[in-house]
Amino acid sequence: MSTTTNDLVAAEIAAEQEHVDRVYAELAKAAQRAELVHAEGMARGQTDRRGTGDPREEELAGLFERDALVYSASKRRASLEHQHEGLVFGRLDLEHAGRAGGDGASGHDTREVRYVGRLGVRDDDYEPLVVDWRAPAAAPFYRATPVDPQGVLRRRVLRCRGEEVVGVEDDLMVADPPEDIVVVGDGALMAALTRSRGARMRDIVATIQQHQDEAIRAPARGVTEITGGPGTGKTVVALHRAAYLLYSDRRRFEGGGVLVVGPSAAYTAYIERVLPSLGEESVVLRSLGDVVGGMTATRLDPPATAAVKGSLRVRQLLARLSREPAPDAPTQLRVFVGGHAIRLTEAHLRRARSQVLRHHHRNTSFDAAVETLAGLAWEQVQQGERAEFVDRFVDSSEVEAFAREWWRPVDPREVLLWLADQDLVRRLGVVSDEEGQLLAASYRRALTDGEWTVADVALVDDLHARLGPVVDLPSEERGFFEIEELDDASQYGVAALRVGGDGAAGSARPLAPTDEDGRPVVVASDPTASERVSRDPRTRLLAGRIGSADEYAHVLVDEAQDLSPMQWRMLGRRGRWASWTVVGDLAQASWSDLDESSRAREEAFGSNVRRSFHMDTNYRNAREIFDHAARVIREHVPDADIPAAVRETGHHPVELTAPPERLVEDARTALADLLEQVDGSVAVITPEVWRARLDGLADVADRVLVIDPLSTKGLEYDATLVVDPDAIVAESAGGVRALYVVLTRAAHRMTVLRPVDGGQG
Ligand SMILES: Nc1ncnc2c1ncn2[C@@H]1O[C@H](COP(=O)(O)OP(=O)(O)OP(=O)(O)O)[C@@H](O)[C@H]1O
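Above: query sequence and adenosine-5'-triphosphate SMILES. Below: predicted holo structure tokens.
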């Protein structure tokens, strides 16, 4: 084997630089071509609409062609820009065995050099200069091992800064390589693992390990489960899998959509760069608080409330709730129709309501509701022709005015807020008194501070499915003039304009703000109005419209162990025809009833085929840090899935105690030490009891973050300062599992600080 002297390394780097320069030159040409196509596409769409109004047919064709050209050219330009950095990251030196000749003599072995990169680039003769990492030709880069070299003599990882090659790391796949195959570097994986952690997760295309590659390239069909302990690369592997699926069947997955769901907004911000850096812009990233269009929630409920809101029992509560009359709905109808005095009592109305809801969604059954009332009214008349009476009844403006109040469309969020009334919750049954109090208190709080919680989103989705979409009731008064006004307004960029119903006859109550006469208020273009609106909690809670569930071709769920049964149902509605990638680790679960969750999860997957991959190497934590965490979890969860940490640093976690009154001061000192020891991010992870007192530590440096335990799910830092582990256990529904999450977030250094009466730093 060759030596790794500086000269040798420099010569190898220079040789690689030559190839990388060629690739960038080719790329510059491709960028120019994309620019030309873009400009040409734009020019092709120039039509003179101003004078004559509508474009001619041939102009329309031109516009369509332009859109297609501009779209693909812009995409190509965007991907060229995103993948500029580290475009070429790998090289394979292969040897193909020569075929035996006709006379039995063996043919010559042939050598091939193949470069692997973020996207495929060819030269003018269409010869590949770089192969896309997802192409079958790149598979040996990830799959070759000394036991099964797959024709690979040497695998080389190129480390680049911008367009410059700054290092190479080799792995030899054969025991006895040809003379000219030199081997340099200490291993690309270790280099990647020891580097500093920033605010964003990075892709691992250059160092994907063989067992990870198997999960990444697994067939798309059915449900692919990726399990394993903390830091085993489950998230990063799943994201590379999303990129691989898009590459392998673009029509299906780009057309049908790929949804990636993670636990929190902090998590989506953390992973958002990975897919663009792999050339994929089309994936939809959502946290559990913004899966449902029209709603965004980041606040978490206290564990006991979250447990009620997440359990399947709450479905029955919602089923009953969705049949309740609106609190302000009229309770009887008195009307003259065809000379007959009709009186429908509260009991009649209740009967009508349950009859209609047996066959219809509430929000799309206005006509059915009026006809059912007509049937009940006819029972009181029984004279003349039934059909004639029903026609008169349905056409009566008084009946219509009543029905518009009684059967007005209800927004699922508005219905959920009815639960602020504790008497109503009690009347609905289903949950215990104590649970009912928690629910009512939670919605009273929402009505005070104008904020939904993450668990509410799944409940709104459930109610939306039960109630049907909120549609405006047909309005005879809404004539041509108003429609034109609406069009005009939209031209001027007015975002939220709604034409109300017919004021006099009693209208469908618009959710958008209205003035005293019930006329719509234009929010977006009127700063004083929007200020007024943002101050009113109820208006904030009901702003916008809830969309119907978008469906996807693939759904990727990270931290799946934390989904409540209701959240599984919410995702199930979005993946009815989808294939799934599901990532999780039960030992990190913060959900208390795991059995109920797994039932709901099975229901979401249906009878899809299952495939599972287990990751057993921890790439995140220094071994010393992980050993500490593993001891904690083993004591309480003996069957926890414990991976092997591959990297030793010699730095054991530091365990400190402090009297409560000195804790903040000691935390500040411990933080200062950590900032000296690492270059990247440092997180102070604190339970709620210390939060307010420790928030100020975030001002110590830009790279410091003060964060609660649950929000660290899926994230990692160079160093962590874990404050009051016992309180972390006590505050979380997941108990010690939550602490396990917290203790496995640091890559390089960790300090644990406990408040102890009379303790010393
Ligand atoms: N093959 C690899 N090459 C380089 N880095 C890797 C590799 N595999 C994993 N890592 C790194 O290990 C760290 C942990 O990965 P990731 O967050 O995906 O783990 P996880 O299993 O989802 O963890 P957790 O369950 O604790 O959230 C990340 O920094 C990731 O980039």
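Residues 189, 192-193, 204, 207-209, 212, 228, 230-236, 585, 588, 619-620, 714, 716, 744 surround adenosine-5'-triphosphate (CB under 6 Å).
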